[in-house]
From TrEMBL:
It is found in: Cell membrane. One of its GO terms (molecular function) is branched-chain amino acid transmembrane transporter activity. Its main location: membrane. This is Branched-chain amino acid ABC transporter permease. Keywords: Cell membrane, Membrane, Transmembrane, Transmembrane helix. One of its GO terms (cellular component) is plasma membrane. It comes from Ramlibacter tataouinensis. The keyword Kinase does not apply. It is a multi-pass membrane protein. The chain crosses the membrane at residues 34-52, 81-99, 111-128, 156-176, 208-231, 243-268, 280-299.
Amino acid sequence: MASARSGGTLLLAAIVAFAPLVLPNNYAYDVAVQIALNAIVCVGLNLLIGYAGQISLGHAGFFALGGYGSAILATRFGVPVWVSLPATCAMVGALAWLVGRPTLRLKGHTLAMATLGLGVIISIAITTEDRLTGGPDGMAVPPLVLFGAAVQGERLWYWIAGALLVAAVWLSLNLIESPNGRALRALHGSEVAAQTLGIDAARFKLQVFTLSAVFAALAGALTAHYAGFITPVKSSFLHSVELVIMVVFGGMASVFGAVVGAAVLTVLPQLLTVLKDYEMMVFGAVLVATMVLFPQGIVPTLARRFGGRAR
């Protein structure tokens, strides 16, 4: 297990390291950065949905809070970006812990509706608090500063986003193979059975919910500082649905499935722009066809067909 886990992480690191050899221009680097940042969110969301079996339709809210929180601390209160970013992730984690305590007592469609409501509340707050957030027009975000220098340019951002993605995957794989990870898989199989074995279901669900929110906040903050601007669109319900689709498309209960799903569904809309009016129609058809051919998602289905185990 450990060798397979290390091998997968090393393969991802190798892909990140050698991908620049085939990236032709800054546009390609920009798409690669978007893939990495989306994949970080999906890796965390997959821990919640794929392994713990808890649905969330409000993770775009945590994503947006990461971006807006770091931007507000930096622009409105003069906090250095290298402080505002981790501080925002910590505050989003604390918020997720607080709202998760009552919310995660729900199950199934009621939990989905509760997380949807949370995302809507966050979106409304961001849109209406225009003195802090700029309202519907959004707000400018200062550049990320590391070691006294501003991080600018797609190529430098590529290495930062790529390194953080590898770290997120490594952390998730180690969590999954730990006793806590086995407890999460037991919860997914049967919460009642897990509790009879002495597993504290409420604690483990709350922990993974908080961790997935921190992943989303980190990716949201990095996205905002990379783009230099953020709008309430990042907190929308549709963005939450996009993130869930990426997880399901790549394969639930598969860390690398989350990465593949984020990669494919970030690149695919870029490729379909040539179709103009038929872009969304073809995009939907591709999703339907993929789920018919790969019912458990791309990575788990391929792993089963070739006799392996999805991770």
